[in-house]
Amino acid sequence: MKKTSPAYILGFMITICAVFGTGIASVHYATLDMLIKNEKLHKNRTICRVFNLSVAGASADAFQKAIEDNITYEQITYQGRTWDVYKRKDTGNIGFIFSGTGFWDRISGIIVLSADLSKVVNIQFLDHKETPGLGARIEEAWFTDQFKGVLIAWEQPVDKRIIVGPAPIPSAKNRVDAITGATQTSIALMRFLNSELETFRKAIKEWKEKTMLEMPSPWE
Amino acid sequence: MAYTPKQVFLNGIWLENPIYRQVLGICSTLAVTNLLANTLFMCFGLIFTTALSNFTISVLREYIPKRIRMIVQVLIIACYVMIVDIIIKALVPDIHRFIGPYVGLIITNCIIMGRAEAFASQNRPLLSLFDGVASGVGYSLVLIFIASVREPLGFGTILGMTLPARDLWWHSWIIMVMPPGAFFMLGMFTWFARRWLVKEVKR
Question: How far apart are CA B160 and CA B167, in angstroms?
Fold first, then answer.
């Protein structure tokens, strides 16, 4: 068969796609267990960091134990969405996994609020695909540290409870600095973080009312 | 023109170094060189991909239809990059979280496509494999050099280990970990290399 004929080209492409596709799939399946373990470890480490838990060692078991000893976990379903909610046993600080669309792709993280939901205790990011060196700086300590102690202005409109970037009053207690060169990421973060806070507040309110009616909650 | 392994090796590492002679693969050079550990994994990814894609393309060179050769080359390169990506993600997830986006970009690293098209599609498989390794090593040497200057100057560490009594004698240069630091370093290195390391060919 001539190498220039459409049939040869088609056959060649199908064969090469099948061979290399199988190769990638095999490597993927061979490492699947490791990937799942890594993912869990990453999540546990983020939970320990965001709740500021002391961990004895750096092994996966140490992180798991720190979480089991200090954190209670609950899944709350509100309007068809299930929220992963964590509560620190001693302080009552409450954290949940938030997510939303950043500049490029989905950003997810854990935010911890004080027990009365009045202020942010800490925030850490689990996953994002923002531009390295620009939007990806959301996970750097200088940025996340700003959120510690930020008041949530519940009396403000939904999109202005936490402000990332410029505000009419620069010293406002509900404001953090945006990232230079990553304005879109900062705006997106502010948008979905505020919307997540609003929905979470409704979800936790409904859940508390429901559990109080049914039985005494271990969280109360 | 037939090449000897020695020529191929010298060309890739020295005389036709991808960074300071061919000026290819600059994006990742600027991006990952603020930490030596990230640089090493990037170099591993690139050597692995350049070597194996060169080898595969060379093995298939008689069968690849000329009209679609670029598509086939990209497909083969992309497969190896995905394999590297999965391996790094499984073995060193923390480093993957930082260099992950750049690993994907190895697909478009001009060194690989350049070597595939300029060398592997016209030479024997083993020689092409050797050329891939040599180009990858040439790239890596420059990156490692730049990273081993940027990390100590910028963070006061080397491979994540703090330099002894750093606070007493060194104040970190933040600019060295930022993109401009990479431009300065790369510019100075290229100037140095072209002035002293390699003789310009006079026409």
Answer: 15
How many Å apart are CA B190 and CA A175, to the nearest integer? 44
pLDDT digits (tens, 9 = 90+) for A21-37: 999 999 999 999 999 99
Phi/psi at A72 (5° precision): -105, 145
Q: What pLDDT score was predicted for residue B31?
A: 82
CA distance linking residue A69 with residue A67, whole number of Å? 5
Nearest to B86 among A9, A28, A41 (CB): A28
Residue A209, SS3 per DSSP: helix
Reported as a single tens digit per residue, the pLDDT across A179-214 is 887 889 999 999 999 999 999 999 999 888 887 766
**What number of other Cβ atoms are within 10 A of residue B77's Cβ?**
24
Which of B143, B153, B157, B148 is closest to B42 using CA atoms?
B143
Mean pLDDT (chain A) is 90
Does ipTM top 0.95? Answer: no
Which residues of chain A have a CB within 8 Å of the CB of B91? Answer: 34
| Bridge partners, residue B162, by sequence | B157
What is the predicted pLDDT for the residue at A209?
A: 85
Determine contact, residues B39/B31, Cβ cutoff 8 Å: no
B156-182 pLDDT per residue, tens? 888 878 888 777 777 878 788 888 899
Who contacts B24 (Cβ-Cβ below 8 Å, separation ≥6)?
A: B18, B109, B110, B111, B114
Chain B residue numbers with beta carbons less than 8 Å from the beta carbon of A35 are: 86, 89-90
Tell me whether B27 touches chain A (CB under 8 Å).
Answer: no
**Interchain CB contact of A38 with B (< 8 Å):** yes
Residue B166 has φ and ψ, to the nearest 5°, of -55, -45
Q: Which helix (H) or strand (E) holds B105?
A: helix B93-105
Contacts of residue B181, Cβ cutoff 8 Å, sequence gap at least 6:
B34, B150, B153, B154, B173, B175
Could you tell me where the beta strands, DSSP code E, fall in chain B?
157-158, 161-162
At residue B131, the pLDDT reads: 93
